[in-house]
Amino acid sequence: MIDHSLLRPELTPEDIRVGCALAARHDVASVCVRPGDVVHAAALLADTGVLVGTVAGFPHGSSTTRTKVAETETAVAQGAAEIDMVVNIGALRAGDVDAVELDIRAVVEAAQVPVKVILENAYLTDEQKIAGCRAAEVAGAAFVKTSTGYAPSGATLADVRLMRAAVSPHVAIKAAGGVRTLDVLLELVAAGATRFGATATETILADAARRTTSTV
After folding, report:
1. DSSP-assigned letters across all residues of 13-55
2. Domain count, the chain
3. What positions carry a catalytic annotation?
4. In CATH, what number is assigned to the domain containing residue 139?
5. Which of 53, 87, 99, 139 has the fewest C-beta atoms lying within 10 Å of its C-beta?
């Protein structure tokens, strides 16, 4: 359920290698790397079963649609199996849902792999979150996602519940931003999330292993 996040700007190639090794060791769902790291990560994770994901329009969502599409096409050609794109936050706040939907649809069509649409809920009203979720579903996204992790706040139980109620069952929910403990992750699972962006992957999974051992 975890996408191990390797998106911080200061990460070195060695940091990416170590992060990918951690992801493979724990058999997480994917690593989510910066676009420039896709080739490196894909080579490191070949034959491990761990997917490589990357981002488009990250972290502000204000890139042109053409730029997001180009980022997506390049990433997929280099080995990315999932794309986490940021919506045009300003357009969503302004109520231009048609523009938001078209932006998402262009990335979905370019990707031909699962696309997770980051709404960046910290900047949105509940009505805007619902509108963004519905635009993502209509545009063909596989997931709606709470946050980039770079805004003033991240995933909340209330937001996950709201997003789960706003989309059909075939659209999944990804929670990111502040998912640093097993207890938080489990609460968000109960609220409807099935994928998690996390940097504290090892801490979360070590806690899970301890609890499992203590019940045996």
Report:
1. HHHHHHHHHHHHHHT-SEEEE-GGGHHHHHHHHTTTS-EEEEE
2. 1
3. 84, 145, 174
4. 3.20.20.70
5. 99
